[in-house]
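LAB NOTEBOOK - FOLDING QUEUE
OPERATOR: T.R.
BATCH SIZE: 2
PURPOSE: Compare the predicted structure-token outputs for two unrelated chains run back to back under identical settings.
PRIORITY: normal
REVIEWER: second-year student, initials M.K.

ITEM 1
FIELD SEQUENCE / FIELD STRUCTURE:
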Amino acid sequence: MSMTDLTKLSAVEAGRKIAAGQFKSVDLVAAALVRAETLDDRLHAFALRLDEDALAEAKALDAETAEGKSRGPLHGVPVAVKDLCDMAGHPTAAGLPMFRDRTAKADATVVERLRAAGCVIIGKTELSEGALALHHPDVTKPVNPWRDDLWTGSSSSGSGVSVAAGIVPAAIGSDTGGSIRFPALCNGIVGLKPTWGRVSRHGVFPLSWTLDHVGPLARTVEDAAAMLQAIAGRDDNDSTTIPAPVPDYLAATGAGVKGLRIGFDEGYATDGVIPETVAAMKKALASLEGQGATICDYTMPDTSAANAAWTPICLSEAWSVHEELAVDTPEGYSEGFREALAAGKAFTGADYARANLARREFVGALDRVFAEVDLLLVPVTPNPVPTVEEFARICPDPEGLERLIRFTCLYDVSGNPTITLPAGLSETGEPLAFQLVAPRLEEARLFQAGKVVEEAFGFDNLAPLD
């Protein structure tokens, strides 16, 4: 296979071919590195490249393959991790230039687990400042490979771009208000935000302790399932991780949807939503019903208080993370990030308590919905994918930002898992997507339904860069 053909493979497909001896991990990793070298001066997806380390790891994994050993379906496959994740001996900048010399002493748990699964980490991807909304002015923003003027989805932008550009088939992102789902939407790929506590956050630089989720962005539903399989599970270094056993997520992708109840509240899911997203959701519903799922009406509980709770929770917790540095070295932050931290500082304990009460009430109301249905189908955002310039105007506007994130931040507040599925392109070339939402710890249902929807759309989600 040519180097270009190698970079078009999904992660699971590549792993199968390595296991079958059709090529070696070092061939696949070399192809990824060549593609990164060719494209990243334009796309700026990477904060740090690890070419020599990656090739050495690939050679070691090939030696294991030659001995008949395999670490699993991702053995020898190149991936990338968001530059919030510690890697021993390398900096974790977290989108902050003042952190570029902040060298990690140990690997984050998610990095350890990727390596244990046989993944080869070729680099660390760029992100917005402190994983909030906007990139630091001294950081070169990643560029959307579908259209240069389009937003890349903020925080996990580099991870999304690296997958859509065909540099890696999967990458790690994080999601506090939508930062796995927005890059998935904007870059036309799959994004999986797991249940809060399903994946360890040990060694991952925080934005908001109780809202942060770590999960994969990937080319296919199978790839997302295999990545979650690799990184999920209890971690003694993170007491918030859930001790429940990790199911066989990859097997779930072939389980079908017969008997699954898909909830669709048309009033909620279409309110102010662009017609092309509505049409895509209805196509998805038809495909799920055609494969044996039952489409159920339900009434979404009031979301206004839970959505409003996101800001005081996120920003007050961000202040708690950055307080010492913000006092001692305020010049290390952009003006916008300083303003966000000041807003977090200004929230009172009573504000935070009320926000968490609203969170608990919404979690209970959503649990009652999930007693009646197995999955919800909802938009990612009511808007079309904005341009970079449009997003810069939306971000400081409280009403505009609330509209943009009202279908995403809700499930960070509740901790429910979601999968974002690409649904092709609009007539004007913007990627389309929607999300499925599951009860806590029911990611397997997302993979069951996601695979059916993926096959129905048949969308080639590699951006046309060649």
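ITEM 2
FIELD SEQUENCE / FIELD STRUCTURE:
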Amino acid sequence: MRALRSKREPTIALINIVFLMLVFFMVAGTLSPPLDRDLSLVNTRDLDARPPPDALVIHSDGQMSFRGVGMPDAATYMSTLEQDAQTEVRIVPDQTLPAAQLVAIGQDLRRAGARKVIIVTERGLQ
């Protein structure tokens, strides 16, 4: 009597395909560089998905910079903006910046003429 041989599944081929797909997505995916090397963004959920245009970067020690140039205060930053850009001002604070200092800078921006101050943060994962 003849023994029945079971057909073997081509698992090696399937593993190769999955591995090639993994390599493809690793190569095809790109990460955007951070605004500054020492900046860690604040985590939030349900953030408006608009990308931040030119924004005022506030470092953990309270130093401010705009397009890589240091800004001594909020009024100086506002004076560099065109009249149309002063209606909606975006700021990118460091995660370790004290909240009281962030609020004070926001108030300074409002006093200097900003109608709306938007804080740009990192989207929370879940």
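REVIEWER COMMENT (ITEM 2): The two ends are 60 Å apart (CA to CA).
FOLLOW-UP: none requested
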